[in-house]
Design brief:
Largest sheet: 5 strands, mixed
Radius of gyration: 15 Å
Order of helices and strands: EEEEEHEE
Number of helices: 1
CATH class: Mainly Beta
Strand order of the largest sheet: 1-7-6-3-4
Low-confidence stretches: none
CATH architecture: Sandwich
Number of domains: 1
Helix content: under 10%
Oligomer: single chain
CATH superfamily: Immunoglobulins
Shape: globular
Mean pLDDT: 95
Number of strands: 7
């Protein structure tokens, strides 16, 4: 899967779909189990994911049957962004076979371009 640059106008809505790749599945898409969570965040340059200025959280019920998620940014999400370069990341929280909480970065710091 190619992770593209997100381009948006400050104060506008923006929708983007994505899935978590899984090479072990025939369709190549990972399906969340009932305890797993996906995080989408937009950060300033050099800002850690934990301090994302826009955060979206996805649970299993937010995933479509085909394994796809839709990130929807509202005008309220983007209106206060200054024009410039930001970055988005996507992380998966899951539990290993021993029940230990784990986090994998699916997408690390791809560009978001905000125009006025």
């Amino acid at each position: 899967m190619s992770w593209d640059i997100i381009k948006l106008i400050r104060g506008d809505s923006h929708a983007r779909t994505f899935y978590i790749p899984d090479d072990t599945k025939e369709d190549g898409k990972y399906i969340l189990d009932d305890k797993e969570v996906v995080y989408f965040g937009i950060t300033l340059p050099h800002q850690p994911f934990e301090h994302a200025i826009i955060k979206k959280v996805f649970h299993p019920e937010d995933q479509r049957e085909d394994g796809v998620f839709e990130v929807y940014l509202t005008p309220d999400d983007t209106v206060d962004l200054l024009p410039g370069i930001y970055y988005y990341s996507i992380k998966l929280l899951y539990y290993d076979e021993k029940g230990k909480e784990c986090v994998d970065t699916i997408v690390n710091k791809h560009k978001v371009v905000v125009n006025d």
